[in-house]
Amino acid sequence: MTVPQRHVFEYATLQVVPRVERGERMNAGLLLYCKALDYLGARVHLDVDRLLALDPSADTAAVLRGLEAATHTCAGEGPAAGEDLLRRFRWLTAPRSTVVQPGPVHTGLTSDPGAEADRLMAVLVLRVQ
User: Fold this and answer.
1) pLDDT tens across 93-126, in order?
2) Pick from 123, 128, 127: which is nearest to 11 by CA?
3) What are the helix and strand counts (H, E) for the chain?
4) Which residues contact 106 (CB under 8 A, 6 or more apart)?
5) 1, 71, 79, 126 — which has fewest CB within 10 A?
């Protein structure tokens, strides 16, 4: 039986911080980068009810645009389109003080970065146990 080769990957959650002064945040997406397998992907899901529980005046359309911008950047679209995957990942995970912010970068091992992104999305964003 052959065990698939596993490669190092990095990931970060995309967090929504509707009111920075309150410090409340919720996970609404995930970025995953794997150099060895030439992979950069994003998964996003906005739980609108949860967001509005944190801030009833939150601009959900603007938050969705921010999350979608991350998926477009991963796909090689937008202002960072000409950059390589690592530079796009670093750009997306750089600290910022906007409503959509990256969480800390973590690492792991995988043989299938797309499946790993789906798994992490289920656990960290969708809260499927």
Assistant:
1) 999 888 999 999 999 999 999 999 999 999 999 9
2) 123
3) 4, 5
4) 10, 11, 12
5) 1
